[in-house]
Amino acid sequence: MQVSMTVNGEAVTEEIEARLLLVHFLRDQLRLTGTHWGCDTSNCGTCVVWLDGEPVKSCTVLAAMAGGHEVRTVEGLEKDGKLDAVQEGFVQCHGLQCGFCTPGMVMTARALLDRDPHPSEGTIREAISGQICRCTGYTTIVRSVQWAAAHEAEGAATVEQDSVTVGSQS
Amino acid sequence: MTTLEDKPAQEFVNNDEHPVGYGRMLRKEDPRLVRGLGKFCDDISLPGMLHLAILRSPVAHARVVSIDTSAAEAHPKVKAVVTGETLKGLNLAWMPTLSNDVQAVLATDKVRFQGQEVAFVVAEDRYSARDALELIDVEYDMLPPVVDVRRALEPDAPVIRDDLEGKADNHCFDWETGDEAATQAVFDKADVVVKQDIVYPRVHPAPMETCGCVADYERVDGKLTLWATSQAPHAHRTVYALVAGLPEHKIRVIAPDIGGGFGNKVPIYPGYVCSIVGSIVTGKPVKWMEDRTENLVSTGFARDYVMQGEIAATKDGKILAIRTNVLADHGAFNGTAAPVKYPAGFFGVFTGSYDLEAAFCKMTAVYTNKAPGGVAYACSFRITEAVYLVERIVDCLAYELDMDPVELRLKNFILPEQFPYTTKTGWVYDSGNYEPTMRKALDIAGYPELRREQTEKRARGELMGIGVAFFTEAVGAGPRKDMDILGLGMADGCELRVHPTGKAVVRLSVKTQGQGHETTFAQIVAEEIGIPPADIEVVHGDTDQTPFGLGTYGSRSTPVSGAAAALVARKVRDKAQIIASGMLEVSVADLEWQKGSFNVKGDPAKSVTIQDIAMRAHGAGDLPEGIEGGLEAQICYNPDNLTYPFGAYICVVDIDPATAVVKVRRFIAVDDCGTQINPMIIEGQVHGGLTDGVGMALMEMIAFDDEGNCLGGSLMDYLIPTALEVPTWETGSTVTPSPHHPIGAKGIGESATVGSPPAVVNAVVDALKPFGIRHADMPLTPSRVWDAMQGRPTAPI
Question: How many whole angstroms separate alpha carbon B495 and alpha carbon B501?
């Protein structure tokens, strides 16, 4: 069957098997490998992408179900070569180690801040509780999201100034 | 050579702005990983690549009567179907494990655990490969399984390993350490003896990325390239050479970005061998990625020790001796990935952080119809089990003596002046200063105030518990004379090249799975030669590009490979000094090193930078006599001893008396891992391990039913902590450098996994003290805590 959707702002039309999962469509067919696969049971959340702005677990969505909808993946977060504040927060606060769960975490956190720019710690923990990180123990992920919230509140100029300069001398 | 004494004590600079060496520094790995641009195994796609899927046994113990693959072979998208019989013809049906046992690649005679590999299919795409598995018809002749470890050695137990010649029972090995008679003598004279059965259930590392690989065999030049989820690419390459008979120089193992390892990615799994065979058979690259169930039911589990602990003490709380008897469940094949001479790993450190008169351990290991493994999940080769045993039994003693568990520990610590300290089981602890670490944790926790709060709450019928644990770890295997894996000595190579413009590349034998090697190893080299970390590329995980070494597990990267990186940098610096002496026309002895440059003693204006020296080393000008051009070096580091990090952990829990749900309210961890390279990364390593510990203590268990069906085969059944089950971690540190490590560093990767389970369990048991509970086994799920509250705590197996 043929499916058409928007992925990270671009119109996409592809031939697919009806049973193809969205996660495999994105990874194998469109080669957007930032979205990961970690379980088959919607428990781990490494596969979280947005469907019309809402986080979904793409391992339990058929690619066909995304037809006519708008999909956004981690690859669509960076704008003009500049990281999203949430991505930057993860770098600044050591919110990742192996980086496997990170794309899903980042997508969920971005969606949270879009609807609640000043979430409490409890709200952040609740928001990411459908996802598993085996490395960080979550405290630094919470800090990363708080960093993003604080820097977005301070405005774009501040974010610019604090942008990541990994390993560089200034 | 720089010694520790030359260095100022632990001065951390803000490396975010001025990276020069040790200190907090943002990670070089992160910019690609936060963008989703990491390259994990399943992200690899090669032209013409096929997909492999494995048919697994649905039962725990059965004879394989027949396998009919004809329907699968007829599937239009299937390229190959392979069974154990096919592999037998290639002499590949069995492979050695890392413990000198053998394991079936594909079953030929029997299946011995649920999930065991029986056949594989190679097809054009993932879904078709899975479809074809459904078309394979296997006839099994059911055999009774051995599930209960306590019954494995009964005379009428079915024999699992009848593949081993003359094998008539399920005995795997016996092992003991310490002095039995001396320990008995101390127990005989002791005022108090406490005995406790303690079970450490089977758990699973369950990294977020499952295991998998892409095998690409080039028929014409005979070169095999294997991208694999491997924590030890060099060791894997050598084993493939030995198993498959492929020449080692024609094998290239590449471990790309790895989505967490925790020991799960140390062993060689049948799937890797199948993929290699698949690529040879089809002439195409072949990808195999496990699904989550395959990962949980078939790959390296951890723990599964049934222990009996005994502790002897005086009535005023001086601990005299510890004795333990262990029944170890090794599953169907002994797949433990521990140094060969250590079949029980480093369990011998069960004497903990205490100065004892005697100690003894006797262990019996058995085969059962369960998945193989044993050493995985950040355990430092069985130190998780050892520390859990000692820290639980010490709390049992505190209970019997009605003594505060902190006071009891403080009374029995090995004293700072006793280091290096040889334990009664022969381990030489390199350095330690335990009391300040304990006191720091108590300060952060506000211990007296917590006890006051607990007293008030108890009076109101509320259940609050405070658990304390103090651990000593032993990490950084070798030395090579004592420690090897399949004959490969546990040492690590390192190579450093400084390019003409003063940028450098350092090549490691170890491989990050999230620990941040690309950052910390650049920092180690930067500290030694003054080139900023941003100018140092860390190359790792590719056997064609890096020197030989045993890999990353057992917290050995910093103790072994980190030492190699520091020493290779000093070797380069020594050569740089000779070249500098020529450039400045003074003798070598007249030069002094400022991080990044040499200057003439007493005349700082006369100096050359490491970058100037690098250009001279590669340039056209004269070099001092006898000095070759170039600025590079290579070494292989063989550690003198393990390093012994330690820490004090305090856990505070509240238990809902109506539902028996345990809530971890606070967790304080003070760790000492010697010299700190990057405190941000150390904190991260600790946080992750604490979460593992809470998971094991409260939630995680790979359980089996009586038929040997695995009951933890999905993440719906095998519970891993989410952000809601763990608190905001409170951490601190002390610094007691290792005297034998070149930079004084010790490993930190597994300290928290080792130290936190007893802290959590001790807290829960403390909360249950009003019910007269002295011990309850993990996992402390609500139903099991409820049973304990009714006065009938049960063992989980």
Answer: 18
Contacts of B459 (CB under 8 A, 6+ apart): none
Residue of B nearest to A130 (CA): B722
Our CA-based measurement puts residue A95 at a distance from the nearest CA of chain B, in whole angstroms, of 9
3-class SS string, chain A: CEEEEEECCEEEEEECCCCCEHHHHHHHHCCCCCCCCCCCCCCCCCCEEEECCEEEEHHHCEHHHHCCCEEECHHHCCECCECCHHHHHHHHCCCCCCCCCHHHHHHHHHHHHHHCCCCCHHHHHHHCCCCCCCCCCCHHHHHHHHHHHHHHHHCHHHHHHCCCCCCCCC
- What distance separates the 2 farthest-apart alpha carbons in chain B? 86
Task: Collect all residues of chain A within an 8 Å Cβ-Cβ radius of residue B207.
Answer: 98, 100, 134
Contact of B478 with B637, CB cutoff 8 Å: no
B30, B40, B724 ranked by CB distance to A129: nearest? B724
Q: How many CA atoms lie within 13 A of B103 on its CB side?
A: 30
- Say if A134 is an interface residue toward chain B (CB within 8 Å): yes
Contact (CB, 8 A) for B472 and B513: no
With an 8 Å Cβ cutoff, is A79 touching chain B? no
Instruction: Select from B126, B206, B260 the Cβ nearest to the Cβ of A98.
Output: B260
ipTM over 0.90: yes
The token pair at B179 is 């002095």
Please give the average per-residue pLDDT across B110-126, as a whole number: 98
Q: What is the pTM of this model?
A: 0.96
Chain A residue closest to B257 (CA)?
A98
Which tens digit of pLDDT belongs to each residue from A105-150?
Answer: 999 999 999 999 999 999 999 999 999 999 999 999 999 999 999 9
Query: Can you read off the two tokens belonging to residue A19?
Result: 């049973």
For an interface test with B, the pick among A31, A42, A75, A100 (most B C-beta atoms closer than 10 Å) comes out as A100
Of B36, B206, B687, the CB nearest to A140: B687
- Beta-carbon separation of A131 and B257 below 8 A: no
How far apart CA B579 and CA B581 sit, in angstroms, is 5
The confidence band for B449, taking pLDDT boundaries of 50, 70 and 90, is very high
Query: Does A96 sit within 8 Å of B34, measured CB to CB?
Result: yes
Give B374's strand partners.
B302
Q: Do residue A37 and residue B42 have CB atoms under 8 angstroms apart?
A: yes
3-state SS assignment for residue B308: strand
Under 8 Å CB pairs connecting chains A and B tally to: 204
CA separation for the pair B49, B38 (Å, rounded): 20
Q: What is the mean pLDDT of residues B236-241?
A: 95
The reported pLDDT for the residue numbered B19 is 61
Q: Is A36 on the interface with B (CB under 8 A)?
A: yes
| Chain-chain contact of A33 with B687 (C-beta, under 8 angstroms) | no
Our CA-based measurement puts residue B159 at a distance from the nearest CA of chain A, in whole angstroms, of: 35
Say how far apart CA B751 and CA B673 lie, in whole Å: 9
B522/A167 touch (CB, cutoff 8 Å), yes or no: yes
- Has residue B448 got a pLDDT over 90? yes
Task: Give the CA radius of gyration of chain B.
Answer: 27
Confidence of residue B338 (pLDDT cuts 50, 70, 90): confident
**With contact defined as beta carbons under 8 Å apart, do B27 and B518 qualify?**
yes
Q: Which residue of B has its CA nearest to A100?
A: B259
Q: What is the pLDDT of residues B573-614, one digit of tens each?
A: 999 999 999 999 999 999 999 999 999 999 999 999 999 999
pLDDT > 70 in chain A, percent: 91
Does residue A163 surpass a pLDDT of 50?
no
H-state helical runs in B563-608: 563-584
Is the bond preceding A103 in cis, omega lying within 30 degrees of 0?
Answer: no
Could you tell me the pLDDT band of residue B12, with boundaries at 50, 70 and 90? very low
In whole angstroms, what separates CA B599 from the centre of its chain?
A: 44
